[in-house]
Amino acid sequence: MTADRRGRTRGRALTAGAAALTLLIATACGGAESAEDEASHLIGFPALTSGPAAFAGVPITEGAQLATKEINESGFLGEGVTIDLEIEDINNDPAQAISLYQQYVADGASAVLCCGLSAEAGALAPVIAQTGTPGVVTSAVLPGLADPPHIVRPVIIPSEPGGLYDQFIDDVVPAEEIETAVLLVTADNDGMVADADIWQEALERNGVEVLKRINTQSADTNYTQAATEVQSLAPDAVVSSMLGTPSALFARSLRERGFEEPILANYGVDSAELFETSGKGLRNTIFFSPFHSELTENETAQRFVELYEEEYGSRPDMYGAQGYTAMWLVAEALKEAGSGEPEDVAEALSNITSLETVYGPVSYEEGQAQMDSKATYLRWTEEGTLESWEG
Predict the structure, then answer these.
(1) Distance from C-alpha of 360 to C-alpha of 369, rounded to nearest angstrom
(2) Average pLDDT over the chain, rounded to whole?
(3) pTM
(4) For residues 42 and 33, what is the distance between their CA atoms, to the nearest angstrom?
(5) Could you say which of 52, 213, 291, 308 is the most buried, measured as most Cβ atoms within 10 Å of its Cβ?
(6) Average pLDDT in the 321-343 region?
(7) Residue 140 to residues 49, 112, 117, 295, 363: CA-CA distances in angstroms?
(8) What is the DSSP string of 53-74?
């Protein structure tokens, strides 16, 4: 006899008599689910574990899995109450993300981790709002995405007026003596377009002349023309408002043409795999990150780094931190809700106003996490290590 998974994901408490009857029926059918299984909450995760975004998607899933293990083993949700995290690859296909979300809903999921990329987020957001099973964003930077009680975003979004980009540019421009810049944009990604707008505003506010804004496409693999154009314009710096893999490929092409001025980038370049893809082209790339494993005094972050190293044999990057943080937010909501009913979890997510995270204390405004401390500034070295940039 195969038990209906929906019956074990809602976390309903059983009376002693009902539990005994369930055990009797299950035993008679040749298979039994334990009381712990009856108190297991399904969390779905349509993830980016293959394709060009896997450099981010894989560590995000590792962070989420690590948090799930910690939550379950610590008994955070109560004795015998666990999370069942189900991860499936969407193959970079927003339609597949929608299909998997709908399947998780049908299977009785309490919540869904989602939205690795802005294109996926844009397609999935209206479906989540209509269906009601809450989505917790892992990495998409699409503006205005948070929409409680339907969607909450524990990811720190730098591209907001007065946010991390403005602070970063205020510090870097005078220190690096930047008077002119060229802006590279992944133009078919709404998140990157909005990201570029904030970059440009911050640059111009600091007196930097943006010589040109060069549009590229997310599927591009040859950046010879863009790199040649940048070289001819001879800016003091290049700003890369691009997805991770395009940033690495463009940097490679740019350095091959002898351009050695600084590249300023978003935290999408915080990946050793991307540095390797760039053929050292990301050297002298300066960026900021809400989290860095070797530059933190935060106790929550230190525990995360220790557990991650123990589990995976390497130090976590920004993406691993995002998955870990997203899953812990779900756990906080489950505990607050006292049940796995999606509507209860959604309400609990909406009521969370602050949380201690790997980024330090964060506050939530309209479902969007806001970092209460300054980001860490980092620079890729020639050797492929990250050093602290202090100007």
Answers:
(1) 11
(2) 88
(3) 0.81
(4) 15
(5) 291
(6) 97
(7) 15, 14, 5, 24, 19
(8) THHHHHHHHHHHHHHHHHHHHH
